[in-house]
Amino acid sequence: MEVKPLLEVEKLALKKVSIFQENPIHYILRAALASMFIGFGVIVAFKTGGYFYNEHSPVAYPMAAFTFGAAIILIAYGGGDLFTGDTFYFSFTALRKKMTWSQVGTLLTLSYIGNIIGAAVFAFII
């Protein structure tokens, strides 16, 4: 098993814990931003795939998947906190006893709430 990447996962989870401890609102806003990026990525992927689908092109689905990947890149570079990724980071770190399970529950709950807020705001904007 590769140890170095898993240690980076642990370091990232602990960084997210420190962001939460410094300012919980900032943590929630990062989660909201992540779901807005996903919403943007879905719209772009559907539009891009739709152009190819209407022409009965065999690359319709790969093009949609390719453009959706841009949303994941936006989250990574934009510093968003998506619930699905946080689940892995925090669970792994808690299993290694670097976080408590109560911290995991709190952070995952706030991440989920932030994702819902971001999705609602993005839907309202659209």
Automatic annotation (TrEMBL):
Q: Where in or outside the cell? A: Membrane
Which UniProt keywords are present, listed alphabetically?
Membrane, Transmembrane, Transmembrane helix
A Pfam family found in this protein is: Form_Nir_trans
Q: Where are the transmembrane segments?
A: 27-46, 58-80, 100-125
UniProt similarity note:
Belongs to the FNT transporter (TC 1.A.16) family.
Q: What protein is this chain from?
A: Formate/nitrite transporter FocA (FNT family)
Membrane-topology descriptor: Multi-pass membrane protein
Q: What is the lineage of its organism?
A: Bacteria, Bacillati, Bacillota, Bacilli, Bacillales
Keyword ATP-binding part of the UniProt annotation: no
Q: Which organism is it from?
A: Anoxybacillus andreesenii
Main localisation = membrane
